[in-house]
């Protein structure tokens, strides 16, 4: 693979459109970023759980604030990479004119990397899958293909993000978001289908990146950008190199910032957070500076900023030094797992403490359990009602609640189920809970 082909401003659905000139106020990749910022699916992330239940008196991160912070770190990674490449070859812009746009491409991909995640954090994905593996949805297995069934029983937010960005939803632009090919490829962490994913020991097949319905879409993107076929999976591809920077930005943010949220919620003391972050800061004078601060939240913020700076710098160095492997698709690890041994060891300790004291905290577990109950109940109601050919009056009323943009004119069971999943997975936590209460008769809608 090579940067000249990998960095393409060709736009999905508008391939023949002329690319904006270098003198344009916004590059094509900046346009991608702006389209995402102003989109409804992105705004809905503000009411989707990141880790902790949505805030009451204490602010914690939601999917939207997380995505914005990941985009900020991703932009830094991209710009730092370009700056290092420019140092090594001052004439590099002549060979790769879009290399200077890597920061914009990565930041846009970071904005959309969680766009397909359902409500209630990662438990939302599990809840959808559970409906088909252990719930009422198991009966549909005989009505779909093996590839389609793998999509349903391993619902994946990453694959759903690609669908949201490219699928021609009813009544909307049939080009989807019409993003550039490079921006689309940069979000696909696992460039294979569900039936070929979940392979132990394979970093880029740990999960999967596109549904059966978007397989042809991704194949067109891969062909345009020159993505290599996976030698171990004839139906899959090797990653676009910029995926590693998007993944690193996400890994940096959730590992470090979850500690900050845990401190705000008093799950971790300041002393615990300091012991975890200080070894990552790389600043011998930092303890003295911390001693001058009285406010503990300010101390945690400083530690967070220093740790992120250390990690971004380290990731860029690996990405530059090992660039040939990234371009060949042979780099075997996540960037964060390939840093210096002392950094990797400290990040593993942070991960261990996070699992013990954050991700298993009662409030976190409670929202996950609630997510299972709410999402399963919604799927129990809406999927049979929409899939049925002959509908009861009750079925018709349920279908009428589904916005028309999610309707499909296809008659196969898989497409109908996907239509409902498009609707349910797009719900915010608050909307899903409110709808659940209403259709279960727990609350009655008021009429103004």
Automatic annotation (TrEMBL):
One of its GO terms (biological process) is dGTP catabolic process. The keyword Transcription does not apply. GO terms for molecular function: dGTPase activity. Keywords: Hydrolase. It comes from the Bacteria. Residues 59-264 form the HD/PDEase domain. This is Deoxyguanosinetriphosphate triphosphohydrolase. It comes from Rhinopithecimicrobium faecis.
């Amino acid at each position: 693979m090579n940067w000249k082909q990998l960095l393409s401003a060709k736009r999905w659905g508008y391939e023949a459109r002329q690319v904006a000139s270098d003198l344009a106020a916004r590059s094509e990749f900046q346009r991608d970023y702006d389209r995402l910022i102003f989109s409804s699916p992105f705004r809905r992330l503000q009411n989707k759980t990141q880790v902790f239940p949505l805030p009451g008196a204490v602010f914690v991160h939601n999917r939207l604030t997380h995505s914005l912070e990941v985009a900020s770190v991703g932009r830094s990674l991209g710009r730092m990479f370009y700056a290092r490449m420019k140092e090594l070859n001052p004439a590099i812009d002549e060979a790769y004119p879009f290399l200077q746009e890597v920061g914009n491409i990565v930041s846009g991909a970071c904005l959309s990397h969680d766009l397909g995640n359902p409500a209630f954090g990662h438990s939302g994905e599990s809840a959808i899958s559970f409906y088909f593996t252990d719930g009422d949805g198991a009966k549909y297995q005989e009505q779909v293909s093996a590839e389609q069934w793998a999509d349903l029983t391993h619902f994946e937010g990453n694959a759903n993000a690609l669908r949201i960005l490219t699928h021609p939803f009813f009544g909307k632009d049939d080009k989807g978001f019409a993003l550039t090919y490079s921006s689309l490829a940069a979000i696909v962490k696992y460039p294979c289908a569900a039936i070929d994913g979940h392979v132990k020991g394979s970093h880029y097949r740990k999960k999967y990146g596109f549904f059966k319905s978007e397989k042809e879409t991704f194949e067109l993107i891969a062909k345009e950008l020159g993505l290599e076929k996976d030698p171990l999976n004839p139906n899959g591809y090797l990653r676009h190199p910029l995926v590693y920077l998007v993944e690193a930005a996400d890994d940096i943010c959730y590992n470090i910032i979850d500690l900050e949220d845990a401190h705000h919620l008093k799950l971790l003391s300041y002393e615990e957070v300091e012991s975890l972050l200080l070894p990552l800061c790389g600043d011998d004078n930092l303890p003295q500076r911390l001693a001058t601060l009285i406010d503990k939240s300010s101390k945690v913020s400083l530690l967070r900023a220093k740790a992120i700076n250390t990690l971004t710098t380290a990731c860029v160095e690996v990405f530059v030094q090992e660039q040939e492997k990234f371009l060949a698709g042979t780099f075997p690890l996540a960037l964060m797992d390939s840093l210096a041994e002392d950094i990797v060891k400290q990040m593993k300790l942070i991960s261990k403490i996070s699992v013990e004291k954050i991700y298993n905290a009662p409030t976190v577990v409670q929202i996950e359990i609630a997510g299972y109950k709410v999402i399963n109940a919604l799927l129990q109601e809406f999927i049979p009602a929409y899939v049925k050919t002959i509908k009861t009056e009750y079925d018709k009323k349920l279908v009428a609640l589904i916005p028309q943009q999610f309707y499909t004119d296809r008659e196969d069971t898989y497409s109908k189920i996907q239509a409902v999943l498009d609707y349910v997975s797009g719900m915010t936590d608050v909307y899903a809970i409110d709808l659940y209460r209403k259709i279960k008769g727990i609350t009655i809608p008021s009429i103004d």
